[in-house]
Design goal:
- Helices cover about 35% and strands about 20% of the residues.
- It is of the alpha/beta class and about 210 residues long.
- It is globular.
- It starts with 17 loop residues before the first helix and ends with a helix.
- It binds guanosine-5'-diphosphate (GDP) and magnesium ion.
- The site of guanosine-5'-diphosphate has 20 residues, from helix 2.
């Protein structure tokens, strides 16, 4: 457990519950066999490379460098487990859609991701991150299809909402919500911005619900 007074914590994230502030790295996993025991509650974070997954994980936990924020996309090649408390995890999934990855490795990720999503009992919900300027790519749809298939709830964070004006951001959200309603009724969506904190409370409430708090 981390010291909540650690200087690495982001002081502005005052609303972040203490349980997330003390989240710490647990393990990196490259195969189904390496997964922690399938006994608890976990929420996975998925999205295209560069969608803002690491930034969101850091912002939601109020920690500067829990997950590594990268300007070079495609680096996170493993399932990274972060422990909120014993048996409760946030899982950073490999970013998808990155072109510069050898086919064999891409295939390995895809199969691992598919099996994890399909078989993991501890998995209670999927946070799907999409850059608000490029929402709902073919791979995003595949993730939502996978969730629908096993009735796993999904919640979309439209990231980098600060890059658009308020009206444009709201329109992008409404449009996405309309599509979700017809194509993926088990999925919800919200605006999110790591640097401004927009949507933080809503996202944390969703985590609380899925992790059984
Ligand atoms: N303006 C803005 N930039 C963001 C936001 N989230 C992430 N970024 C930037 O987008 C880039 C990719 O972010 P990162 O968290 O590493 O994405 P990941 O590959 O999905 O983990 C970095 O340069 C971040 O600083 C956001 O909400 N707003
Ligand atoms: Mg990342």
């Amino acid at each position: 457990m981390k010291n909540p007074n650690d200087p690495n914590l982001i002081p502005t994230a005052a609303t972040t519950a203490l349980r997330y502030r003390t989240t710490c790295f647990f393990d990196s996993v490259n195969s189904m066999a390496q997964l922690p025991p399938d006994t608890g509650w976990e929420v996975a974070f998925a999205g295209r490379s560069n969608a803002g997954k690491s930034s969101a994980l850091n912002a939601l936990t109020g920690q500067r460098q829990l997950a590594r924020v990268s300007k070079t996309p495609g680096r996170t090649q493993l399932l990274n487990f972060f422990q909120v408390e014993p048996d409760r995890f946030l899982v950073d999934l490999p970013g998808y859609g990155y072109a510069q990855v050898p086919d064999a490795i891409r295939r390995h990720w895809r199969l691992l991701l598919e099996r994890y999503l399909r078989e993991r009992v501890a998995l209670r919900g999927l946070m799907l991150l999409m850059d608000i300027r490029h929402p709902l790519t073919a791979l995003d749809r595949q993730m939502l299809d996978g969730c629908a298939h096993r009735l796993l709830p999904a919640h979309v964070l439209l990231t980098k909402a600060d890059k658009l004006g308020r009206g444009a951001a709201r329109m992008a959200l409404q449009q996405l919500q309309k599509t979700l309603k017809t194509d993926y009724s088990g999925a919800s969506a919200q605006l999110f911005s790591a640097p401004t904190g927009l949507g933080m409370d809503e996202a944390l409430a969703q985590l609380d619900e899925w992790l059984g708090y």
